[in-house]
């Protein structure tokens, strides 16, 4: 058995029955990295840097604890909650914005009352849109 195979075998034996990296641990890991980068780039008061450094350390510890955790059910429930409440909504919003940016024929308005998105053809000038969901008025220029 080669050296690398030995390492890989040892690692998979070590990770057996453990949670491993999921979406939530990747997100907390990235958050910790981003906080560290922010800390390194921007000059901030000492106590702010200390707080940010502390948060990123906690996030990093959480990430490691979750990856090596053996309480699979709990970790999976956390990850499912994270996917449902944060990951998919944010991802959906990003995709939607991309679609809206590519659509040059329409302008999109978000209803201030109910957050419904209304699509209007471009070039109509000043308009008042009646929200299809809550009948509220949206004033805008298309
Ligand atoms: Zn509305």
Short structural summary:
The chain is of the alpha+beta class and 142 residues long.
Bound ligands: zinc ion
The level of helicity is 55-70%
Shape annotation: elongated
Kindly provide the radius of gyration, computed on alpha-carbon positions and rounded to a whole number of angstroms.
23 Å
Q: How many helical elements?
A: 4
Broad structural category: alpha+beta
Strand arrangement, major sheet: 1-2
Instruction: Estimate nothing, just give the exact number of structural domains.
Output: 2
Unreliable sequence segments: none
> In what range is the share of β-strand residues?
5-15%
| Overall pLDDT score | 92
Order of helices and strands: HHHHEEEE
Number of strands: 4
Oligomer: single chain
* Main sheet record: 2 strands, antiparallel
Distance between the termini: 68 Å
Model description:
With 142 residues, this protein is α+β, with helices and mostly antiparallel strands. It has two domains: 3-102, no CATH class; 103-142, no CATH class. It is 60% helix and 14% strand. It is built from four helices and four strands, in the order H-H-H-H-E-E-E-E. The protein has helices at 3-15, 23-41, 46-67, 72-102; strands spanning 106-110, 117-121, 126-130, 137-141. A two-stranded antiparallel sheet has the order 1-2. Strands 3-4 form a two-stranded antiparallel sheet. Helix 2 runs antiparallel to helix 3. It binds zinc ion. Zinc ion (ZN) binds at residues 111, 113-114, 116, 131, 133-134, 136.
